[in-house]
Amino acid sequence: MAQKKAQPGKKRPAGKPAAAKAEPAPKAEPVKKAEPVKKEEPAKKAEPAAQAEPARQEAPAQKAKPAKKAKKPAAKKTAPAPKAEAAPKAEPAPKAEPAPVCDTPRRSVAFIGSECHPFVKTGGLGDVMYALPRELAKQNCDVRVILPRYACIPQQYQDKMVYRGEFYMDLGQTGRRYYVGIMEYIWDGVVYDFIDNQEFFTTGNPYVSLVDDIPKYCFFSKAALAALNYMNWIPDILHCHDWQAALAPVYLRTLFRDSPVGRAKTVLTIHNLRFQGIYNIPTIRYWTGLPDEVFNMGALQQDYVNANMLKGGLAYADRITTVSNTYAGEIQTPEYGEKLEDHLRYHNYKLRGIVNGIDYGMWDPATDPALAVHYDITNVLRHKPENKRALQQELGLVQDEGKFLIGLISRLTNQKGLDLVNAILPQVLDGNTQVVVLGTGDKQYEDTFRWYENEHKGMFSACIQYDEARAHRIYAAADALLVPSRFEPCGLTQLNAMHYGTLPIVRETGGLKDTVEPYNVFTGGGNGFTFDRYDAGLLLDAINRAKTEYFTSRYHWDEVVQRDMAKDVSWQHSARQYKELYLELTPW
Ligand code: ADP
Question: Using an 8 Å Cβ cutoff, are 49 and 169 in contact?
Fold first, then answer.
Protein backbone atom coordinates (compact mmCIF):
# COMPACT_ATOMS: atom_id res chain seq x y z
CA MET A 1 0.00 0.00 0.00
CA ALA A 2 2.25 2.55 -1.04
CA GLN A 3 1.89 5.55 -3.08
CA LYS A 4 1.55 4.89 -6.73
CA LYS A 5 0.05 6.81 -9.53
CA ALA A 6 -3.56 7.49 -9.03
CA GLN A 7 -5.95 5.84 -11.36
CA PRO A 8 -6.97 8.50 -13.68
CA GLY A 9 -10.44 9.77 -13.35
CA LYS A 10 -12.26 12.33 -15.33
CA LYS A 11 -11.30 15.77 -14.29
CA ARG A 12 -13.66 18.16 -12.76
CA PRO A 13 -12.73 21.15 -10.78
CA ALA A 14 -13.17 20.56 -7.12
CA GLY A 15 -13.54 23.24 -4.57
CA LYS A 16 -15.66 26.27 -4.71
CA PRO A 17 -16.00 26.48 -8.43
CA ALA A 18 -17.27 22.92 -8.55
CA ALA A 19 -19.61 23.65 -5.75
CA ALA A 20 -20.68 26.69 -7.57
CA LYS A 21 -21.49 24.71 -10.67
CA ALA A 22 -23.51 22.33 -8.69
CA GLU A 23 -24.95 25.01 -6.56
CA PRO A 24 -28.47 24.66 -7.66
CA ALA A 25 -28.75 21.18 -6.39
CA PRO A 26 -26.59 21.41 -3.38
CA LYS A 27 -27.74 24.59 -1.98
CA ALA A 28 -31.30 23.86 -2.44
CA GLU A 29 -30.83 20.70 -0.48
CA PRO A 30 -28.54 21.63 2.24
CA VAL A 31 -30.89 24.09 3.57
CA LYS A 32 -33.35 21.35 4.13
CA LYS A 33 -30.91 18.67 5.01
CA ALA A 34 -28.64 20.63 7.12
CA GLU A 35 -31.31 22.47 8.91
CA PRO A 36 -31.83 20.00 11.63
CA VAL A 37 -28.16 19.95 12.21
CA LYS A 38 -27.92 23.66 12.23
CA LYS A 39 -30.71 24.01 14.66
CA GLU A 40 -28.83 21.94 17.11
CA GLU A 41 -25.60 23.82 17.03
CA PRO A 42 -24.15 25.12 13.94
CA ALA A 43 -22.71 28.07 15.68
CA LYS A 44 -21.39 26.00 18.51
CA LYS A 45 -19.50 23.81 16.20
CA ALA A 46 -17.48 26.59 14.87
CA GLU A 47 -17.06 28.04 18.30
CA PRO A 48 -15.36 25.20 20.02
CA ALA A 49 -12.69 25.10 17.44
CA ALA A 50 -12.44 28.79 17.82
CA GLN A 51 -12.08 28.55 21.53
CA ALA A 52 -9.21 26.23 21.13
CA GLU A 53 -7.38 28.47 18.80
CA PRO A 54 -5.94 31.57 20.29
CA ALA A 55 -5.92 33.39 16.98
CA ARG A 56 -9.64 33.16 16.76
CA GLN A 57 -10.41 35.52 19.51
CA GLU A 58 -10.19 38.18 16.93
CA ALA A 59 -13.17 37.06 14.97
CA PRO A 60 -13.43 33.42 14.17
CA ALA A 61 -16.68 32.68 15.85
CA GLN A 62 -18.25 35.67 14.35
CA LYS A 63 -17.07 34.76 10.95
CA ALA A 64 -18.17 31.22 11.21
CA LYS A 65 -21.66 32.13 12.19
CA PRO A 66 -22.30 34.46 9.36
CA ALA A 67 -20.97 31.89 6.97
CA LYS A 68 -23.73 29.54 7.95
CA LYS A 69 -26.34 32.16 7.89
CA ALA A 70 -25.18 33.09 4.49
CA LYS A 71 -26.18 29.70 3.20
CA LYS A 72 -29.84 30.33 3.26
CA PRO A 73 -29.73 33.45 1.21
CA ALA A 74 -27.42 31.73 -1.18
CA ALA A 75 -29.86 28.93 -1.53
CA LYS A 76 -32.56 31.36 -2.29
CA LYS A 77 -30.54 33.01 -4.95
CA THR A 78 -29.53 29.90 -6.75
CA ALA A 79 -32.26 27.55 -5.90
CA PRO A 80 -33.19 26.36 -9.37
CA ALA A 81 -35.94 23.96 -8.82
CA PRO A 82 -34.90 21.06 -11.01
CA LYS A 83 -32.15 19.71 -8.86
CA ALA A 84 -33.85 20.51 -5.65
CA GLU A 85 -35.80 17.36 -6.17
CA ALA A 86 -32.78 15.22 -6.33
CA ALA A 87 -31.69 16.43 -2.97
CA PRO A 88 -34.23 14.63 -0.87
CA LYS A 89 -33.35 11.37 -2.56
CA ALA A 90 -29.73 11.54 -1.64
CA GLU A 91 -30.37 13.01 1.74
CA PRO A 92 -31.80 10.21 3.70
CA ALA A 93 -29.07 9.83 6.24
CA PRO A 94 -31.03 7.00 7.83
CA LYS A 95 -29.85 4.67 5.07
CA ALA A 96 -26.50 4.81 6.65
CA GLU A 97 -27.74 2.51 9.35
CA PRO A 98 -28.04 -1.02 8.05
CA ALA A 99 -29.66 -3.70 10.09
CA PRO A 100 -27.12 -4.89 12.61
CA VAL A 101 -26.06 -8.46 12.11
CA CYS A 102 -23.78 -8.81 15.06
CA ASP A 103 -24.48 -8.77 18.74
CA THR A 104 -21.77 -6.36 19.89
CA PRO A 105 -22.78 -2.86 20.95
CA ARG A 106 -23.13 -0.18 18.31
CA ARG A 107 -20.27 2.27 17.81
CA SER A 108 -19.82 5.21 15.51
CA VAL A 109 -16.55 5.48 13.62
CA ALA A 110 -15.15 8.21 11.38
CA PHE A 111 -12.52 7.00 8.92
CA ILE A 112 -10.09 9.70 7.86
CA GLY A 113 -7.76 8.90 4.98
CA SER A 114 -6.37 10.16 1.72
CA GLU A 115 -7.76 7.60 -0.72
CA CYS A 116 -10.59 5.16 -1.12
CA HIS A 117 -11.62 2.86 -3.93
CA PRO A 118 -13.50 3.52 -6.25
CA PHE A 119 -13.13 7.29 -5.91
CA VAL A 120 -9.36 7.43 -5.84
CA LYS A 121 -6.85 4.65 -5.29
CA THR A 122 -3.11 4.32 -5.59
CA GLY A 123 -2.57 1.21 -3.50
CA GLY A 124 -3.73 -1.08 -0.74
CA LEU A 125 -4.83 1.86 1.45
CA GLY A 126 -7.56 2.57 -1.11
CA ASP A 127 -8.75 -1.04 -0.84
CA VAL A 128 -8.86 -0.94 2.95
CA MET A 129 -10.73 2.37 3.06
CA TYR A 130 -13.31 0.82 0.76
CA ALA A 131 -13.77 -2.63 2.23
CA LEU A 132 -13.30 -2.18 5.97
CA PRO A 133 -16.04 0.46 6.51
CA ARG A 134 -18.52 -1.69 4.58
CA GLU A 135 -17.71 -4.70 6.70
CA LEU A 136 -17.85 -2.64 9.90
CA ALA A 137 -21.29 -1.38 8.88
CA LYS A 138 -22.39 -5.02 8.88
CA GLN A 139 -20.90 -5.43 12.32
CA ASN A 140 -23.09 -2.83 13.95
CA CYS A 141 -20.97 0.25 13.33
CA ASP A 142 -22.17 3.59 12.10
CA VAL A 143 -19.41 4.54 9.68
CA ARG A 144 -18.55 7.79 7.99
CA VAL A 145 -15.54 8.03 5.66
CA ILE A 146 -13.94 11.44 5.30
CA LEU A 147 -11.88 12.03 2.16
CA PRO A 148 -10.49 14.94 0.19
CA ARG A 149 -12.59 15.87 -2.78
CA TYR A 150 -9.83 15.55 -5.38
CA ALA A 151 -10.49 16.79 -8.87
CA CYS A 152 -9.49 13.35 -10.19
CA ILE A 153 -12.50 11.61 -8.64
CA PRO A 154 -14.48 10.27 -11.62
CA GLN A 155 -17.38 12.38 -12.75
CA GLN A 156 -19.91 9.61 -12.13
CA TYR A 157 -19.20 9.89 -8.38
CA GLN A 158 -18.91 13.68 -8.39
CA ASP A 159 -22.40 13.75 -9.85
CA LYS A 160 -23.80 11.68 -7.00
CA MET A 161 -22.41 13.88 -4.27
CA VAL A 162 -24.84 16.07 -2.40
CA TYR A 163 -23.93 19.39 -0.86
CA ARG A 164 -23.96 19.06 2.91
CA GLY A 165 -22.74 22.44 4.03
CA GLU A 166 -19.79 24.79 4.16
CA PHE A 167 -17.87 26.93 6.61
CA TYR A 168 -14.59 28.78 6.93
CA MET A 169 -11.67 27.64 9.03
CA ASP A 170 -8.41 29.15 10.30
CA LEU A 171 -5.29 27.32 9.25
CA GLY A 172 -2.02 27.56 11.13
CA GLN A 173 -0.21 30.85 10.99
CA THR A 174 -1.45 31.71 7.54
CA GLY A 175 -3.68 34.43 8.91
CA ARG A 176 -6.34 33.37 6.45
CA ARG A 177 -9.64 31.58 6.71
CA TYR A 178 -10.13 28.71 4.32
CA TYR A 179 -13.29 27.48 2.69
CA VAL A 180 -14.37 23.97 3.74
CA GLY A 181 -17.18 22.48 1.72
CA ILE A 182 -18.75 19.14 2.58
CA MET A 183 -20.09 16.99 -0.23
CA GLU A 184 -21.80 13.79 0.77
CA TYR A 185 -22.44 10.44 -0.88
CA ILE A 186 -24.22 7.56 0.85
CA TRP A 187 -23.55 4.10 -0.49
CA ASP A 188 -24.13 0.63 0.92
CA GLY A 189 -24.57 1.65 4.51
CA VAL A 190 -21.54 3.95 4.56
CA VAL A 191 -21.57 7.75 4.42
CA TYR A 192 -18.75 9.35 2.43
CA ASP A 193 -18.04 13.00 3.21
CA PHE A 194 -15.70 14.75 0.81
CA ILE A 195 -13.85 17.80 2.04
CA ASP A 196 -13.99 20.37 -0.67
CA ASN A 197 -11.44 23.11 -1.25
CA GLN A 198 -10.21 24.01 -4.65
CA GLU A 199 -6.97 25.50 -3.45
CA PHE A 200 -5.73 22.20 -2.09
CA PHE A 201 -7.44 19.48 -4.09
CA THR A 202 -7.38 20.52 -7.70
CA THR A 203 -4.43 18.43 -8.84
CA GLY A 204 -5.12 15.24 -10.79
CA ASN A 205 -3.30 12.89 -8.43
CA PRO A 206 -3.65 12.82 -4.67
CA TYR A 207 0.11 12.80 -4.13
CA VAL A 208 2.15 15.34 -6.02
CA SER A 209 5.23 16.37 -4.09
CA LEU A 210 5.83 16.96 -0.42
CA VAL A 211 5.94 20.72 -0.96
CA ASP A 212 2.28 20.57 -1.97
CA ASP A 213 1.25 17.58 0.07
CA ILE A 214 2.29 18.86 3.48
CA PRO A 215 -0.04 21.91 3.48
CA LYS A 216 -2.74 19.85 1.77
CA TYR A 217 -2.90 17.21 4.49
CA CYS A 218 -2.42 19.71 7.33
CA PHE A 219 -5.55 21.35 5.99
CA PHE A 220 -7.35 18.06 5.39
CA SER A 221 -6.77 16.63 8.89
CA LYS A 222 -7.98 19.79 10.55
CA ALA A 223 -10.91 20.28 8.19
CA ALA A 224 -12.05 16.69 8.83
CA LEU A 225 -12.37 17.38 12.57
CA ALA A 226 -14.01 20.75 12.01
CA ALA A 227 -16.46 19.12 9.59
CA LEU A 228 -17.48 16.56 12.21
CA ASN A 229 -18.17 19.38 14.62
CA TYR A 230 -20.01 21.29 11.94
CA MET A 231 -22.21 18.30 11.08
CA ASN A 232 -22.71 17.62 14.76
CA TRP A 233 -21.79 14.02 14.13
CA ILE A 234 -19.44 13.13 16.96
CA PRO A 235 -17.99 9.65 16.55
CA ASP A 236 -16.96 7.32 19.33
CA ILE A 237 -13.84 6.51 17.36
CA LEU A 238 -11.71 8.48 14.95
CA HIS A 239 -9.86 5.95 12.78
CA CYS A 240 -7.03 7.69 10.91
CA HIS A 241 -4.88 6.17 8.18
CA ASP A 242 -1.21 6.80 7.37
CA TRP A 243 0.70 10.06 7.59
CA GLN A 244 -1.81 12.03 5.57
CA ALA A 245 -4.35 11.76 8.41
CA ALA A 246 -1.87 11.40 11.25
CA LEU A 247 -2.24 14.98 12.43
CA ALA A 248 -5.89 14.41 13.29
CA PRO A 249 -5.13 12.83 16.70
CA VAL A 250 -2.68 15.69 17.41
CA TYR A 251 -5.24 18.38 16.54
CA LEU A 252 -7.85 16.47 18.50
CA ARG A 253 -5.86 16.58 21.75
CA THR A 254 -4.75 20.20 21.30
CA LEU A 255 -6.77 22.68 19.22
CA PHE A 256 -9.98 20.62 19.30
CA ARG A 257 -9.65 19.34 22.83
CA ASP A 258 -12.54 21.39 24.14
CA SER A 259 -14.78 21.01 21.12
CA PRO A 260 -17.45 18.30 20.78
CA VAL A 261 -15.25 15.99 18.69
CA GLY A 262 -12.63 16.15 21.43
CA ARG A 263 -14.39 13.33 23.24
CA ALA A 264 -13.62 10.77 20.50
CA LYS A 265 -10.97 8.08 20.93
CA THR A 266 -8.39 7.72 18.20
CA VAL A 267 -6.88 4.81 16.27
CA LEU A 268 -4.04 5.39 13.80
CA THR A 269 -3.28 2.67 11.27
CA ILE A 270 0.12 2.37 9.59
CA HIS A 271 -0.25 0.91 6.12
CA ASN A 272 3.35 1.51 5.11
CA LEU A 273 5.87 2.99 7.52
CA ARG A 274 8.10 4.13 4.68
CA PHE A 275 5.95 7.20 4.10
CA GLN A 276 5.84 9.57 7.08
CA GLY A 277 5.24 13.17 5.99
CA ILE A 278 8.53 14.74 7.05
CA TYR A 279 9.29 18.41 6.49
CA ASN A 280 11.14 21.21 8.21
CA ILE A 281 9.72 22.36 11.52
CA PRO A 282 8.96 26.00 10.58
CA THR A 283 6.86 24.88 7.61
CA ILE A 284 4.81 22.39 9.59
CA ARG A 285 4.43 24.87 12.42
CA TYR A 286 3.25 27.47 9.93
CA TRP A 287 0.63 25.23 8.31
CA THR A 288 -0.65 23.56 11.47
CA GLY A 289 -0.52 26.29 14.06
CA LEU A 290 0.00 23.54 16.62
CA PRO A 291 1.28 24.63 20.04
CA ASP A 292 4.99 24.49 20.85
CA GLU A 293 4.62 21.54 23.18
CA VAL A 294 3.96 19.12 20.31
CA PHE A 295 7.22 20.04 18.59
CA ASN A 296 9.38 17.99 20.92
CA MET A 297 11.24 14.71 20.46
CA GLY A 298 8.43 12.78 22.07
CA ALA A 299 5.95 13.88 19.43
CA LEU A 300 6.38 15.69 16.12
CA GLN A 301 10.04 16.59 16.19
CA GLN A 302 12.18 14.24 14.12
CA ASP A 303 15.58 15.89 14.55
CA TYR A 304 16.99 19.41 14.87
CA VAL A 305 15.54 20.40 11.53
CA ASN A 306 12.51 18.32 10.72
CA ALA A 307 9.05 17.48 12.00
CA ASN A 308 7.38 14.16 11.24
CA MET A 309 3.60 14.10 10.96
CA LEU A 310 3.26 10.33 11.38
CA LYS A 311 5.48 10.39 14.46
CA GLY A 312 3.24 13.03 16.05
CA GLY A 313 0.15 10.99 15.30
CA LEU A 314 1.68 7.87 16.83
CA ALA A 315 2.39 9.78 20.02
CA TYR A 316 -1.12 11.19 20.37
CA ALA A 317 -3.24 8.27 19.12
CA ASP A 318 -4.97 6.11 21.74
CA ARG A 319 -4.20 2.98 19.72
CA ILE A 320 -1.86 2.23 16.84
CA THR A 321 -2.51 -0.59 14.45
CA THR A 322 -0.63 -1.90 11.52
CA VAL A 323 -1.70 -4.39 8.92
CA SER A 324 -0.16 -7.60 10.26
CA ASN A 325 1.18 -8.95 13.49
CA THR A 326 4.60 -9.72 12.11
CA TYR A 327 4.97 -6.21 10.66
CA ALA A 328 3.91 -4.80 14.06
CA GLY A 329 6.94 -6.56 15.53
CA GLU A 330 9.28 -5.81 12.63
CA ILE A 331 8.76 -2.05 12.69
CA GLN A 332 10.15 -1.95 16.19
CA THR A 333 13.55 -3.06 14.85
CA PRO A 334 16.18 -0.93 13.07
CA GLU A 335 15.87 -3.08 9.93
CA TYR A 336 12.22 -2.22 9.31
CA GLY A 337 11.59 0.72 11.61
CA GLU A 338 12.39 3.51 9.09
CA LYS A 339 14.04 5.43 11.97
CA LEU A 340 10.89 5.30 14.09
CA GLU A 341 11.73 2.00 15.81
CA ASP A 342 12.57 3.65 19.15
CA HIS A 343 9.42 5.73 19.06
CA LEU A 344 7.35 2.65 18.22
CA ARG A 345 8.97 0.59 20.95
CA TYR A 346 8.14 3.36 23.40
CA HIS A 347 4.50 3.22 22.31
CA ASN A 348 4.26 -0.52 21.74
CA TYR A 349 1.79 -1.00 24.59
CA LYS A 350 -0.82 0.48 22.29
CA LEU A 351 0.41 -1.12 19.05
CA ARG A 352 -1.42 -4.06 17.47
CA GLY A 353 -1.36 -5.95 14.16
CA ILE A 354 -4.59 -6.74 12.30
CA VAL A 355 -4.20 -8.36 8.93
CA ASN A 356 -6.12 -7.09 5.89
CA GLY A 357 -8.66 -9.08 3.95
CA ILE A 358 -9.90 -8.93 0.38
CA ASP A 359 -13.32 -7.94 -0.86
CA TYR A 360 -15.12 -11.06 -2.05
CA GLY A 361 -17.41 -8.94 -4.21
CA MET A 362 -14.47 -7.69 -6.22
CA TRP A 363 -12.49 -10.92 -6.13
CA ASP A 364 -14.56 -13.94 -7.04
CA PRO A 365 -13.45 -16.35 -9.80
CA ALA A 366 -17.01 -17.62 -10.10
CA THR A 367 -18.31 -14.24 -11.30
CA ASP A 368 -15.21 -12.24 -12.26
CA PRO A 369 -16.06 -10.51 -15.55
CA ALA A 370 -12.39 -10.34 -16.56
CA LEU A 371 -11.89 -14.11 -16.77
CA ALA A 372 -12.05 -16.33 -19.82
CA VAL A 373 -13.72 -19.12 -17.84
CA HIS A 374 -15.40 -18.86 -14.47
CA TYR A 375 -14.67 -21.43 -11.78
CA ASP A 376 -15.09 -22.24 -8.13
CA ILE A 377 -13.58 -24.72 -5.74
CA THR A 378 -15.52 -27.62 -7.27
CA ASN A 379 -14.22 -27.20 -10.82
CA VAL A 380 -11.02 -25.23 -10.43
CA LEU A 381 -8.87 -28.15 -11.54
CA ARG A 382 -10.74 -28.35 -14.82
CA HIS A 383 -11.12 -24.65 -15.57
CA LYS A 384 -7.86 -23.16 -14.36
CA PRO A 385 -5.94 -24.72 -17.28
CA GLU A 386 -8.43 -23.15 -19.68
CA ASN A 387 -7.70 -19.74 -18.15
CA LYS A 388 -4.01 -20.51 -18.49
CA ARG A 389 -4.34 -21.25 -22.18
CA ALA A 390 -6.37 -18.07 -22.73
CA LEU A 391 -3.71 -15.95 -21.02
CA GLN A 392 -0.92 -17.64 -22.97
CA GLN A 393 -2.75 -16.71 -26.12
CA GLU A 394 -3.40 -13.16 -24.94
CA LEU A 395 0.27 -12.58 -24.13
CA GLY A 396 1.83 -14.46 -27.03
CA LEU A 397 3.29 -17.20 -24.87
CA VAL A 398 3.70 -20.81 -25.98
CA GLN A 399 0.24 -22.33 -25.55
CA ASP A 400 0.74 -25.37 -23.41
CA GLU A 401 -1.29 -26.16 -20.30
CA GLY A 402 1.54 -28.36 -19.07
CA LYS A 403 3.93 -25.44 -18.53
CA PHE A 404 4.36 -24.20 -14.97
CA LEU A 405 3.14 -20.59 -15.09
CA ILE A 406 4.44 -18.12 -12.51
CA GLY A 407 2.83 -14.68 -12.12
CA LEU A 408 4.27 -11.54 -10.52
CA ILE A 409 1.90 -8.59 -9.99
CA SER A 410 3.55 -5.71 -8.27
CA ARG A 411 4.74 -2.17 -8.16
CA LEU A 412 8.26 -2.45 -9.60
CA THR A 413 10.17 -0.95 -6.70
CA ASN A 414 12.97 -1.87 -4.42
CA GLN A 415 10.48 -2.97 -1.71
CA LYS A 416 9.21 -5.88 -3.75
CA GLY A 417 12.34 -8.05 -3.99
CA LEU A 418 12.79 -7.68 -7.72
CA ASP A 419 16.56 -7.77 -7.57
CA LEU A 420 16.24 -11.33 -6.28
CA VAL A 421 13.92 -12.20 -9.15
CA ASN A 422 16.28 -10.75 -11.74
CA ALA A 423 19.18 -12.66 -10.32
CA ILE A 424 17.54 -16.06 -10.73
CA LEU A 425 15.34 -15.71 -13.83
CA PRO A 426 17.79 -17.49 -16.14
CA GLN A 427 17.62 -20.57 -13.90
CA VAL A 428 13.85 -20.38 -13.53
CA LEU A 429 13.23 -20.23 -17.30
CA ASP A 430 14.16 -23.86 -17.92
CA GLY A 431 11.84 -24.57 -20.87
CA ASN A 432 9.03 -25.96 -18.72
CA THR A 433 8.34 -22.73 -16.86
CA GLN A 434 6.77 -19.49 -18.01
CA VAL A 435 6.83 -16.17 -16.15
CA VAL A 436 4.42 -13.23 -16.49
CA VAL A 437 5.24 -9.89 -14.86
CA LEU A 438 2.59 -7.18 -14.52
CA GLY A 439 3.62 -3.86 -13.03
CA THR A 440 5.06 -0.40 -13.40
CA GLY A 441 7.67 1.43 -11.41
CA ASP A 442 11.42 1.95 -11.46
CA LYS A 443 12.86 2.13 -14.95
CA GLN A 444 15.69 -0.25 -14.14
CA TYR A 445 13.22 -3.07 -13.40
CA GLU A 446 10.93 -2.23 -16.29
CA ASP A 447 13.86 -2.37 -18.71
CA THR A 448 15.27 -5.57 -17.28
CA PHE A 449 11.94 -7.35 -17.62
CA ARG A 450 11.56 -6.09 -21.19
CA TRP A 451 15.01 -7.49 -21.92
CA TYR A 452 14.01 -10.89 -20.54
CA GLU A 453 10.89 -10.88 -22.67
CA ASN A 454 13.02 -10.30 -25.72
CA GLU A 455 15.51 -12.99 -24.75
CA HIS A 456 12.92 -15.63 -23.85
CA LYS A 457 10.16 -15.15 -26.36
CA GLY A 458 7.17 -17.33 -25.75
CA MET A 459 8.26 -18.08 -22.19
CA PHE A 460 8.46 -14.69 -20.52
CA SER A 461 6.00 -11.81 -20.73
CA ALA A 462 6.64 -8.31 -19.37
CA CYS A 463 3.42 -6.31 -19.09
CA ILE A 464 4.70 -2.91 -18.03
CA GLN A 465 1.33 -1.37 -17.26
CA TYR A 466 -1.36 -0.96 -14.61
CA ASP A 467 -4.26 -3.11 -15.76
CA GLU A 468 -6.83 -4.36 -13.25
CA ALA A 469 -8.52 -6.79 -15.62
CA ARG A 470 -5.26 -8.35 -16.73
CA ALA A 471 -4.25 -8.72 -13.09
CA HIS A 472 -7.43 -10.73 -12.50
CA ARG A 473 -6.65 -12.95 -15.49
CA ILE A 474 -3.12 -13.60 -14.27
CA TYR A 475 -4.38 -14.62 -10.83
CA ALA A 476 -6.78 -17.04 -12.51
CA ALA A 477 -4.31 -18.47 -15.01
CA ALA A 478 -1.08 -18.80 -13.05
CA ASP A 479 -0.07 -21.84 -11.06
CA ALA A 480 2.01 -19.81 -8.62
CA LEU A 481 2.44 -16.15 -7.68
CA LEU A 482 5.76 -14.69 -6.62
CA VAL A 483 5.96 -12.21 -3.72
CA PRO A 484 9.60 -12.11 -2.56
CA SER A 485 9.33 -8.70 -0.85
CA ARG A 486 12.10 -7.09 1.15
CA PHE A 487 9.34 -5.94 3.50
CA GLU A 488 5.57 -6.26 3.18
CA PRO A 489 3.25 -4.68 5.76
CA CYS A 490 0.39 -6.98 4.73
CA GLY A 491 0.33 -7.65 1.01
CA LEU A 492 -2.84 -8.28 -0.92
CA THR A 493 -1.54 -10.13 -3.96
CA GLN A 494 -0.90 -13.35 -2.05
CA LEU A 495 -4.47 -13.21 -0.71
CA ASN A 496 -5.93 -12.62 -4.17
CA ALA A 497 -3.80 -15.48 -5.50
CA MET A 498 -4.93 -17.98 -2.87
CA HIS A 499 -8.53 -17.05 -3.43
CA TYR A 500 -8.04 -17.82 -7.13
CA GLY A 501 -6.35 -21.19 -6.44
CA THR A 502 -2.86 -19.91 -7.23
CA LEU A 503 -0.15 -20.96 -4.80
CA PRO A 504 1.92 -18.10 -3.38
CA ILE A 505 5.72 -18.26 -3.23
CA VAL A 506 6.63 -15.65 -0.64
CA ARG A 507 9.33 -14.36 1.62
CA GLU A 508 8.49 -14.81 5.30
CA THR A 509 8.08 -11.17 6.21
CA GLY A 510 5.21 -8.98 7.46
CA GLY A 511 1.77 -10.03 6.32
CA LEU A 512 3.21 -12.64 3.96
CA LYS A 513 4.39 -14.58 6.97
CA ASP A 514 1.06 -14.23 8.74
CA THR A 515 -1.09 -15.32 5.82
CA VAL A 516 0.90 -18.02 4.02
CA GLU A 517 1.61 -21.19 5.95
CA PRO A 518 4.61 -23.02 4.42
CA TYR A 519 3.82 -26.22 2.55
CA ASN A 520 4.89 -29.27 4.50
CA VAL A 521 5.96 -32.04 2.20
CA PHE A 522 5.50 -34.68 4.90
CA THR A 523 2.03 -33.79 6.09
CA GLY A 524 0.78 -32.11 2.90
CA GLY A 525 -0.38 -29.13 5.00
CA GLY A 526 0.18 -25.45 4.24
CA ASN A 527 -0.82 -22.86 1.65
CA GLY A 528 2.29 -22.04 -0.35
CA PHE A 529 6.08 -22.01 -0.54
CA THR A 530 8.20 -19.74 1.60
CA PHE A 531 11.78 -18.70 2.30
CA ASP A 532 13.12 -16.58 5.12
CA ARG A 533 16.34 -14.62 4.54
CA TYR A 534 16.43 -12.05 1.76
CA ASP A 535 18.57 -14.17 -0.50
CA ALA A 536 18.27 -15.05 -4.21
CA GLY A 537 19.41 -18.63 -3.63
CA LEU A 538 16.64 -19.21 -1.11
CA LEU A 539 14.06 -17.76 -3.49
CA LEU A 540 15.27 -20.11 -6.23
CA ASP A 541 15.06 -23.00 -3.80
CA ALA A 542 11.45 -22.13 -2.92
CA ILE A 543 10.52 -21.93 -6.63
CA ASN A 544 12.21 -25.27 -7.28
CA ARG A 545 10.34 -26.89 -4.39
CA ALA A 546 7.09 -25.62 -5.89
CA LYS A 547 8.04 -26.94 -9.34
CA THR A 548 8.97 -30.33 -7.96
CA GLU A 549 5.63 -30.63 -6.25
CA TYR A 550 3.79 -29.46 -9.36
CA PHE A 551 5.54 -31.79 -11.79
CA THR A 552 5.98 -34.87 -9.61
CA SER A 553 3.15 -34.81 -7.10
CA ARG A 554 0.24 -33.12 -8.83
CA TYR A 555 -2.33 -34.75 -6.59
CA HIS A 556 -0.87 -33.04 -3.55
CA TRP A 557 -0.49 -29.76 -5.44
CA ASP A 558 -4.16 -29.85 -6.36
CA GLU A 559 -5.10 -30.43 -2.75
CA VAL A 560 -3.32 -27.20 -1.80
CA VAL A 561 -5.08 -25.36 -4.65
CA GLN A 562 -8.44 -26.30 -3.20
CA ARG A 563 -7.37 -25.62 0.36
CA ASP A 564 -6.24 -22.12 -0.61
CA MET A 565 -9.53 -21.40 -2.32
CA ALA A 566 -11.37 -22.51 0.80
CA LYS A 567 -9.23 -20.36 3.11
CA ASP A 568 -11.06 -17.43 4.64
CA VAL A 569 -9.25 -14.30 3.48
CA SER A 570 -12.33 -12.08 3.68
CA TRP A 571 -12.62 -8.88 5.69
CA GLN A 572 -15.05 -10.35 8.17
CA HIS A 573 -12.51 -11.65 10.67
CA SER A 574 -10.32 -8.55 10.50
CA ALA A 575 -13.30 -6.21 10.86
CA ARG A 576 -14.31 -8.10 14.00
CA GLN A 577 -10.87 -7.44 15.46
CA TYR A 578 -11.16 -3.72 14.69
CA LYS A 579 -14.57 -3.70 16.31
CA GLU A 580 -13.13 -5.33 19.42
CA LEU A 581 -10.45 -2.67 19.50
CA TYR A 582 -13.09 0.08 19.29
CA LEU A 583 -15.03 -1.51 22.14
CA GLU A 584 -11.88 -1.75 24.20
CA LEU A 585 -11.46 2.01 23.82
CA THR A 586 -15.10 2.77 24.55
CA PRO A 587 -16.09 0.32 27.29
CA TRP A 588 -19.41 1.90 28.17
P1 ADP B 1 1.21 -2.36 -2.43
O2 ADP B 1 2.48 -2.32 -1.62
O3 ADP B 1 1.44 -1.95 -3.83
O4 ADP B 1 0.06 -1.66 -1.80
P5 ADP B 1 -0.40 -4.74 -2.05
O6 ADP B 1 -0.08 -6.16 -2.28
O7 ADP B 1 -0.85 -4.35 -0.68
O8 ADP B 1 0.87 -3.92 -2.52
O9 ADP B 1 -1.56 -4.27 -3.07
C10 ADP B 1 -1.36 -4.31 -4.45
C11 ADP B 1 -2.72 -4.33 -5.12
O12 ADP B 1 -2.59 -3.66 -6.38
C13 ADP B 1 -3.18 -5.75 -5.45
O14 ADP B 1 -4.58 -5.79 -5.39
C15 ADP B 1 -2.70 -5.96 -6.90
O16 ADP B 1 -3.51 -6.87 -7.60
C17 ADP B 1 -2.81 -4.58 -7.46
N18 ADP B 1 -1.80 -4.28 -8.48
C19 ADP B 1 -0.47 -4.07 -8.30
N20 ADP B 1 0.13 -3.79 -9.47
C21 ADP B 1 -0.83 -3.85 -10.41
C22 ADP B 1 -0.84 -3.65 -11.83
N23 ADP B 1 0.26 -3.33 -12.49
N24 ADP B 1 -2.01 -3.79 -12.48
C25 ADP B 1 -3.13 -4.09 -11.81
N26 ADP B 1 -3.21 -4.28 -10.47
C27 ADP B 1 -2.06 -4.16 -9.78
Answer: yes
